[in-house]
Amino acid sequence: MAGVHGIRFGLHFWDLPSASWIEQVRRYEQLGFSSITFTDHQVVPQWEPTAALAAVAAVTESIRLGTLVLDMGLRNPVLTAKAAATLEVLSNGRLELGLGAGYVAQNFAASGVSFERAGDRIARLEEGLSLMRRLWSEPSTTMHGRFFDVSDAPMVLGEPVTPTVLIGGGGPKMMNLGGRLADIVSMIPRQATGEWSVEASVEDSTLERMADKARWVREGAEQAGRDPSEVELHTMVARSIVGDDVDEAIAKESADTDVPVTAMEDSTLYLTGPGPRIRDRLREWQARTGLRYISIFDPGEDQIEYLAKEVVAPLREA
């Protein structure tokens, strides 16, 4: 069983209101949230994540800023390395560069890129990360790899940088890769269909499945000669129904989605109920899986205030 540590919390978005985003991100920082992250989907009208983070960096001081996650099946690693290095400097070291192999087939179709088999997408991610790390630190990089052929590429900035790297995924190969190479590993349900659906993901989001994913991360870290406890484990909550009187709303969500309430309670995709119940549930998540970092997908301003008071503050210093 994992030891008890404080849990940090992030907020995750497609975008923010154009008229009030500055006030909102400053408020999230004041409320004690650890990070603001943006997703990366071509088939969703959303902010481009690296551009959004540069703007957020300019109006905040301490909150960490991240991509959750960049679809590296669609992004050139040389250009991504330069963008990430710039963000790392502009934010004074606050970047959490989240990377993924890409799992939503529609994103590839919308970008005119073939959707390779999973093993090739994962291998591309690993090679791309190796290339980016060299571009962050070496005066000149030449790599003749399976996916990338780069000659005499200069270091992307005039000084070396070491952004925090997050790798996100759900299967054993991705979790192993994260354990070997990442600072943070985001454990999410597997998406075998090539589409995103919360309801279809519940089965792979139970605490038992998350414990399996955490074990795969630890095994990867050990294979690389790393201390597994130094790899921070993360997941993302997709739906939150929180408050002191929300049982009726929880029952409606169950009826609307055909996800039983008991399944919600055993799923890391859901946070439901009043503060004390959520705190107990998150302590159980940590004890059974080692999770120390939770991002919550756009829960709405009222719920953000409630979470800050009833969940974030009590568990941050636990």
Describe this structure in words.
It is a single chain. By secondary structure, the protein is an alpha/beta fold. 44% of the residues lie in helices and 19% in strands. It contains twelve helices and 13 strands. The strands form three sheets. Strands 1-2-3-5-8-9-10-13 form an eight-stranded parallel beta barrel, surrounded by six helices. The chain has a two-stranded antiparallel sheet with strand order 6-7. Helix 2 (49-59) runs parallel beside helix 3 (77-90), helix 3 packs across helix 5 (118-137) and helix 11 (275-289) packs across helix 12 (301-316). It is globular and about 60 Å long.
Biggest sheet strand line-up: 1-2-3-5-8-9-10-13
H/E order of the elements?
A: EHEHEEHEHHEEEHEHHEEHHEHEH
Taken as a percent bin, the fraction of beta residues is: 15-25%
How much is the radius of gyration in Å?
19 Å
Taking pLDDT < 50 over at least 5 consecutive residues as the criterion, the unreliable ranges are: none
Biggest sheet, open or closed, and with what strands and sense? 8 strands, parallel, barrel
What's the helix count? 12
Overall pLDDT confidence: 95
Separation, N- and C-terminal Cα atoms: 17 Å
Q: Roughly how much helix do the residues carry, as a percent range?
A: 40-55%
Count of distinct strands: 13
Silhouette: globular
> In terms of structural class, how would the helical and strand content be classed?
alpha/beta
